[in-house]
Amino acid sequence: MKYKGVLNLVAGLIILLIIWQLTSFNSVDIAAEVDGYDDNYHSKLKVNEGLDSVKAKCGVSKPCRPGHFAFRIRSGAANTIGPKICFEGKTIMSTAHNNVGGGLDIVVVNGQTGVVENARILNGSPQETLSFLRDIKPGMIVLVASFDNANGMTDEIRNIFSGMGSSKARSIKFRDNWVFAVRTGLDSTLHFEKITVTDEKNNLYEGWPETAEVEGCFSSIVGQAYLGEVRSDERQEKTFVLDF
């Protein structure tokens, strides 16, 4: 009986030792997993905080990703304040620059290098406007803003913009405000576009509606662009990848 009691005591101690070792091992594993998760979580927070802390070019809602060009376009207000076209943090056309005029104001940018190749007021003869638009090469980024009245476009001019992807060029009426951004040459209707329709009852200015405005990001890789604001959560980004 005496030896049996000793054996039971030893067996109990061995069982307690095994339980203690198993518990300690699991605790280390759990702690390692929690620490790893926290590190990744804080790393993601730091990345996102860094993105948000960067000043967005052209004042877009969120900074564009590296390798992307930011833009923002605002139409003219009535016939007094001209439109503003900003690309990559630089105002290309505006009243302050004294290079805007009634009709259509347009900027053409090299879609890969981001170099502005042309900025012009399109309010001359329809033949001059057609010649200018037809000379725009595939892959170029085209930024357009109306001022005062864009209704002077002929059907041929409207058809060219429609061919670029515009869904509203054919419906623009007297004193409507219109802004449009697109990378030309894509076999797609991917574009940024907004129109504010003139309405005597709801016009913000006497005889004119409120301004129209769009913003976004174009990738320097031809065939990619972001619609709307860029968000830090990749799952929420509206990303369209197109090839041609």
From TrEMBL:
GO terms for molecular function: carbohydrate binding. Residues 1-24 form the signal peptide. Pfam families: ILEI. The keyword Transmembrane helix does not apply. Its main location: secreted. Residues 103-185 form the ILEI/PANDER domain. Keywords: Disulfide bond, Lectin, Secreted, Signal. It is found in: Secreted. InterPro entries: FAM3, ILEI/PANDER_dom. This is ILEI/PANDER domain-containing protein.
